[in-house]
Amino acid sequence: MLKADLWFPSIVWATEDIDFDTKWLKQYADQLRTANPEGVKISNAGGWQSRSIEYPEFKESTIPPQLLKLKAQLDSAVGEASAQAGLPTLHLNNLWFNINGHKDHNMLHDHQGSLISGVLYSNVEEPDLMGNIEFHRDDHAIHYIPPLDRYNHFTSHKGSYQPREKILLLFPSWLKHSVNSNMSQKERYSLSFNYGPGAPDKIWRE
């Protein structure tokens, strides 16, 4: 009898059990964009990203209580994922807000300097059009697996998740991913973040 040992699996955790005010989060992202219309450019082709809000800032009184409440829920979810993966206790390194408009997308990238990264979708009015997030395998299996009538988690070249309001996705920070173009005329809002065993001096992000 064969015993399957899974080595180096790529894990994506998903939940819709995060309780937060999507209207407030959208308003807060809009406030940040008004204050800094240029935003930052990392992996995003078009769209707007806020500056990185670093962990030390969460010790200051300037962080809204709603964001502190959301951080507590992210801490809990990441803690559960870390326990499942046998990782040490992780702490929030940084987070930032994303607003993707028509045809905006994100190029292939990873999140160096952390262990678990994630994205929380806050406002998604047309999920079928607003661009899936895709996780890419990088073990060169594409050169070996012949065309198949049906693919599964073992044979697929990538995993795709449709954005939905209030869905949280967690994944290893080294798992390369991209975001397809938003083909809606409406903007899609999300929050991204990184967790690690400490707070490194320099955080790489989406």
Topology summary:
Elements (H helix, E strand, L loop, with lengths): L12 E3 L6 H14 L8 E2 L2 E2 L3 E2 L10 H21 L5 E10 L4 E5 L6 E8 L9 E4 L21 E4 L6 E5 L4 E3 L8 E9 L10
Antiparallel strand pairs: 1-10, 2-6, 3-5, 4-5, 5-12, 6-11, 7-10, 7-12, 8-9, 8-11
What do you see in this structure?
The chain contains 2 helices and 12 strands; from the N terminus they run βαβββαββββββββ. It is α+β, with helices and mostly antiparallel strands and 206 residues long. The chain has one domain: q2cbj1_9rhob like domain (Jelly Rolls). The radius of gyration is 17 Å and the shape is globular. 28% of the residues are buried. The C terminus is likely disordered.
Structure at a glance:
The protein has 206 residues and is α+β, with helices and mostly antiparallel strands. It has helices spanning 22-35, 65-85; strands spanning 13-15, 44-45, 48-49, 53-54, 91-100, 105-109, 116-123, 133-136, 158-161, 168-172, 177-179, 188-196. Strands 1, 3, 4, 5, 7, 10 and 12 form a seven-stranded antiparallel beta sheet that branches. Strands 2-6-11-8-9 form a five-stranded antiparallel beta sheet, with no helix packed on it.
